[in-house]
Amino acid sequence: MEREADKIGVELMGRACFDPLSASSVFVRMEEDDKKKGGGGSSSSYLSTHPGHGERVGNLRKWGREVKGKMKGREGECAEINRRWEEMRRGKVRRRLKRSDSNSSYISILLTILPHSPHPSG
Question: Cα separation of 57 and 33, whole Å?
Answer without folding.
Answer: 15
